[in-house]
Write a structure and sequence with these properties.
CATH class of chain A: Alpha Beta
Oligomer: homodimer
Largest sheet of chain A: 8 strands, parallel, barrel
Number of strands of chain A: 14
CATH architecture of chain A: Alpha-Beta Barrel
Structural class of chain A: alpha/beta
Helix content of chain A: 40-55%
CATH superfamily of chain A: Aldolase class I
Number of helices of chain A: 13
Mean pLDDT of chain A: 96
Distance between the termini of chain A: 24 Å
CATH topology of chain A: TIM Barrel
Radius of gyration of chain A: 19 Å
C-alpha cells in the first residue's frame, strides 16, 4: 500500500492529504438549508449536508492530491446516519482513485483490535462469505496498549496490502503530558517510535514499511529526531495550517529523497472559503476555494523541499 | 451518574458488569442459521444474529446486574449494520434500566474528542434541534493525547451527568510495554492515574467522581497501589475469568466500604454455554447458562469482599 501512496504522491507532485473532517459550522448555509429542507433538522439532515459538502469538495480537488483522511469522529457524532456518510465518502473517494486514510485512532486488547482491523481494513467472515465493513486503505492506530493491541492491525495490513499510521507524537498542545516524559533518558514517543519500527519491519513495501507513524507538524525539533530514528517509516503529519504548523516546520519530516511524509490539512482546505484569503470565491463556490487552497498548500510545501 | 451506578450495585448486590462483546463464534448455530436464512450470509445477517443473541442474554440477566458494557469494536467490524445493532442494544438495555458503558476507548485532539463525546455521551446541535447519536451512560476513553484529548469528555459528563472510565492500566499481556515504564521512578500508569484524579476532581457525584479508571484484574499488585492513589475514583475492572483474573486478584480494586469497583466479564458470561461447567444447559438454553454464570460470578466476587 505505501508504494501505491508514494506513486500517487509522485504523480500528483503533492505530498498532501485533505482531511475530510466536516463540522456543520464549516458547511455553507445554502447547503445546510437544502438538506434540512429535505430531511429536517435531524441526524439524517446533518448527514446529508455533510455528504453534499464532501462531494463538492472531493469533485473539486481529487485530481490534485494522492489521498484523503476522513476523521471518523466527525461522522460518528451523528450516529448511524453520520457513519453511513463516512462509508459513502470512503467509497466515493476510492472510486475517484484517491487513497483513503481512515483517521480512527483505534486500539484495544488483541481480540478487540482484531475486530477493528477486520472492520476498517480487512474483511469479516460471515458463514461462508467474506464481507467488508468500512474498507479504507490505511488507518490510524493508538499504541497505548502495546504490541498485542497493534499486531492485529499489522496482520491485516500484511494479508490485504493495506497500511497503518501509529500515533507517535501527536500535534495537540497537551501531547507532551505523557508522550514527552523521559524514560531512561528518552521521551516516551521515542520508545513508541522504536516499537513502530519493530512492528513494521516485516511489512516493507518497497523502500518504506506499510506501518507508518503519526508525527505532528507542530513539534519540528522532535520530527527531526524521529526522521533519523525511523528512516523507513512514512509519516502522516497533522497540524499544518489551522493547528499552527508551517511549511518550514515540516521539512524535517521528509527524507533526503523528498519522500517519507504526507502532510494533512483539514480546516485549511475544506473550510477555505471562510478564510480572508479565499473570501472572494464566496460560499457558493466553496469547492473552488478548496481547490485554490490545495494548490497553494502544495506550492508552499514543495517550496521547502 | 456514578451515584446511580452505585445505587444499582447496592440494590443488585452485584459489582458486576456483563460485557456484551458478541463474536459470531459465540453464537449458537440455531441462532446463526435463522438469521442467515432471513438475511443471507451478509453483514445484515451477522448483525441480526448478534441482535437475537444479545436480546436473549439481556432478557436472561438484566435483573441480576447493574450494568452492561458493549464493546463497540465487535459491532463496528460489521460496518453500518453492526453499529445499528450496537445502538439497538444500548436502547434495549437502557429501557431495561441497565446502565450502559460504551467500551469505545476513544481519544483524539480536543475538537475531535469533543465530537466523540457529543456522539457517544451527549448531543449534537443540528440547526435549532439537539440530537443524540449513540447515547450511552458512560464511556471508556484513551489518555495518550493528554488533557486536551480527555477534557471534552469530562465537560459532556458534567453537563449531562454521565461518566467515563479512562484507561490507566489495561488487562492485556503487553499493557506493560509502555504503561509500566518508569518515569521519575514511577510507572507511566501512575502518572496517568494522577491525571485521572485531577480531571475528575470537579466531577464528584457523591463519594466518587464521574471520571473513573480502567484498571485490569490481571495485575493485582498494581491495583493495590492504584486503589490507594485514587480513593475517589471508581474502577472498571476487565480481565476477570477468560482473561485470567480471579476473584482473589480483584479484592484490591475495592475500597473498605466494598465499593469502588465494577468487574466486567464478557466471554465468561455471554458464551457460558460453551464452558464445560454450563454444558448441560445446551446451546438452545444459552441465555439460562449466562444467567447461571452471572449468579456464580456474583457469588465468587462477593465471597472475597
Amino acid at each position: 500500500m505505501i508504494s501505491q501512496l508514494i506513486e500517487k504522491i509522485k504523480s500528483t507532485n503533492a505530498p498532501v492529504c485533505a482531511g475530510l473532517d466536516p463540522m456543520l459550522s464549516y458547511i455553507p448555509e445554502h447547503v445546510l438549508l437544502k438538506s434540512y429542507d429535505s430531511f429536517g433538522e435531524t441526524l439524517e439532515g446533518a448527514a446529508d449536508a455533510i455528504w453534499q459538502f464532501n462531494k463538492e469538495i472531493i469533485d473539486s480537488i481529487w485530481d490534485l492530491i494522492p489521498a484523503v483522511k476522513p476523521q471518523i469522529a466527525m461522522y460518528e457524532q451523528f450516529g448511524i446516519e453520520g457513519l453511513t456518510v463516512y462509508k459513502k465518502t470512503i467509497q466515493y473517494c476510492r472510486r475517484k482513485g484517491l487513497i483513503v486514510i481512515g483517521d480512527a485512532k483505534r486500539g484495544d486488547i488483541g481480540s478487540t483490535s482484531a475486530a477493528y482491523a477486520a472492520g476498517h481494513l480487512g474483511q469479516v467472515q460471515v458463514g461462508s462469505k467474506a464481507c467488508r465493513g468500512f474498507d479504507v486503505d490505511m488507518l490510524t492506530v493508538n499504541p497505548y496498549m502495546g504490541t498485542d493491541g497493534v499486531k492485529p492491525f499489522v496482520d491485516v495490513c500484511d494479508a490485504e496490502d493495506k497500511g497503518l499510521f501509529v500515533l507517535v507524537k501527536t500535534s495537540n498542545p497537551s501531547s507532551g503530558e505523557f508522550q514527552d516524559r523521559l524514560i531512561d533518558g528518552r521521551p516516551l514517543y521515542e520508545w513508541v517510535a522504536d516499537k513502530v519500527v519493530e512492528w513494521g519491519a516485516q511489512s516493507m513495501d518497497g523502500a518504506y514499511s506499510n506501518v507508518g507513524a503519526v508525527v505532528g507538524a507542530t513539534y519540528p525539533e522532535m520530527s527531526k529526531i524521529l526522521r533519523k530514528q525511523m528512516p523507513d517509516t512514512y509519516f502522516l503529519v497533522p497540524g499544518y495550517g489551522a493547528q499552527g504548523g508551517t511549511a518550514e516546520d515540516l521539512k524535517y519530516c521528509f527524507n533526503q529523497d523528498g519522500l517519507g511524509a504526507i502532510v494533512n490539512s483539514s480546516r485549511g482546505i475544506i473550510a477555505a472559503y471562510k478564510q480572508e484569503k479565499y473570501k472572494s470565491f464566496g460560499p457558493e463556490n466553496f469547492g473552488q476555494a478548496s481547490r485554490q487552497s490545495v494548490l497553494d498548500m502544495v506550492a508552499d510545501i514543495n517550496n521547502v523541499l
